Amino acid sequence: MIRYLQPCVLLSAKTKHISPLLTKRSFYMWLNFVFNRVDYSRIEEFGPDRVAAEWILRCGGGVKFHSHDSWMRNYNALAPGPGHKYKLQGIDAQDTCVTTGGLLHLEGLHHLEYLSLHNCKYITDLNHLQHVKNSLRELDIGNCHGISDIQPLEQMTKLQKLNLSGASRIKDKDKSISDLQKKLPECEVKM
């Protein structure tokens, strides 16, 4: 006899049944966690640029390498073998399942110039962007409604373009943007 295992959910004495929506949501949250988890042993073997590219492509985004003229959006198109020779220049994670924890993949990306997190609803904290503060020139965090603090962006001295349009939960929005523009006078901020 084959037994099918149900997702592990703790039930209180008052709970009679589990909503199918709850189990479906739990599955997708688990899947997002898996897609965004950092595998440090893989980074050691294949390099941070290759592993970050795999992460973004798994999440449904695109990447651009310095050695290529076009954006890559197909996971299977990544060249096999160690990726130490490939340097990520751009990441397009617009409308993907990228999470704040997934941004840990940015560590070690010394050539990343463009990053779009537009409409990424699971981004809530920008502190992990510090990993690319010395290379990032263009950042799009428009419609990231989970972001409330943009102060970590003040350290991104190379930033030339920043999209904040639709980021509605920024604390003291006018003052925060004014402070940011004072710290980054060369950066064009779109609101």
Give structural notes.
The protein is an alpha/beta fold and 191 residues long. The chain has helices spanning 20-36, 40-46, 48-58, 173-183; strands at residues 62-65, 88-92, 114-116, 138-140, 161-163, 188-190. The chain is built from four helices and six strands, in the order αααβββββαβ. It starts with 19 loop residues before the first helix and ends with a strand. Mean pLDDT is 85; it is low at 1-19.
Nutshell version of this structure?
The protein is of the alpha/beta class.
Output the number of helix runs: 4
Please give the alpha-carbon distance between the first and last residues: 60 Å
Structural class: alpha/beta
* Relative helix content: 10-25%
State the total count of DSSP E strands. 6
Give the spatial strand order of the biggest sheet.
Answer: 1-2-3-4-5-6
Rg (CA only) = 19 Å
Give a quick account of the main beta sheet: strands, pairing sense, barrel closure: 6 strands, mixed
- The proportion of strand residues reads 5-15%
Shape: globular
Which spans have pLDDT < 50 for at least 5 consecutive residues? 1-19
Order of helices and strands: HHHEEEEEHE
**Which whole number gives the mean pLDDT?**
85
